[in-house]
Structure formats: C-alpha cells, structure tokens
Amino acid sequence: QVQLVESGGGLVQSGGSLRLSCAASSRTFSSPFSYYAMGWFRQAPGKEREFVAAISYGGGRTTYADSVKGRVTISRDNAKNTLHLQMNNLKPEDTAVYYCAADLYGSGGSSLAEYDYWGQGTQVTVSS
C-alpha cells in the first residue's frame, strides 16, 4: 500500500501564497517514487474533486487546470520522495481540501480515474 501524506495547508488571505508538500513513503512504494506520475486535486465543500496539476513520472511534462494556470507550479524531488505545489496569488475560490495522488508509469493526466493512490488531504482556506 502506497502511503502519501500532504502538508502545508492553512489559512491565508486573498493574494497570499502557500506551498503544499506530499511525502511518499518509500517503504510502501512497490517501485521507485520517480516511476510514478503525481497529481494534485482539490475538493471544495459540496463539489466534486477536481484536477489542479500533474507531473509525469519522468518529470518532463506538467499539466495545469485552466483555473490555476499561471498561479501554481508543481514540482517533484525524487531524491526525497516529495511532491510540491507552490500556489501564488490565491483566491477565495481556491479554498478546498487538496489531495496528492500517484499513478505508476503515468503520463500525468487530469482524470481522477488514472490515479491509484491518494493521500488524506490538507485544508487550504483563502479569506477575502
């Protein structure tokens, strides 16, 4: 069982920044972390979980939702088994629980169904 643990969420004012992290447990991964495409998704109250950003297993390809493009950067540190999401110029509509997800040998797509493993989420709240 792959274990993913998100951190870095919190309360921030509109226009502020947050950096989310997702730590992958190397003890539970069946393959090296670098072999997994990684994604960030979010779910606001009363809404479906939606795609935010993803990075391919090689790290050479990144994809962003239109709603966050230009404000968010996804990155990975394969040596530390860690995924990051730098979020700038945050807006109240970015308020949600943010989840990281892993997909072995994935291309880093935007569909929830592509991802096999999920973290428990970290809350991001942006006040106006």
How would you characterize the overall build of this protein?
The protein is an all-beta fold and 128 residues long. It contains no helices and 11 strands. The strands form 2 sheets. Strands 2, 4, 5, 6, 9, 10 and 11 form a 7-stranded mixed sheet that branches. It has a 4-stranded antiparallel sheet with strand order 1-3-8-7, with no helix packed on it. A hairpin with a 4-residue loop joins strand 7 (72-77) and strand 8 (82-87).
Task: Give structural attributes.
single chain; mainly beta; 7-stranded mixed sheet; 0% helix
What is the element layout, followed by pairings?
Blueprint: E1 4-7, E2 10-13, E3 18-24, E4 36-43, E5 50-55, E6 62-64, E7 72-77, E8 82-87, E9 96-104, E10 117-118, E11 122-127
Parallel strand pairs: 2-11
Antiparallel strand pairs: 1-3, 3-8, 4-5, 4-9, 5-6, 7-8, 9-10, 9-11
One letter per element, helices H and strands E, the order comes to EEEEEEEEEEE
Radius of gyration, taken over Cα atoms and rounded to an integer in Å: 14 Å
Distance between the termini: 39 Å
Strand content: over 45%
Q: Which structural class do you get from the secondary structure elements?
A: mainly beta
Count of β-strands: 11
Q: In this structure, how is the largest beta sheet organized?
A: 7 strands, mixed
pLDDT < 50 stretches:
none
Shape: globular
By DSSP (H or I, 4+ residues per run), the number of helices equals 0
Q: What portion of residues is helical?
A: under 10%
Mean pLDDT value: 94
Can you give me a brief rundown of this structure?
This protein has 128 residues and is mainly beta. It contains no helices and eleven strands.
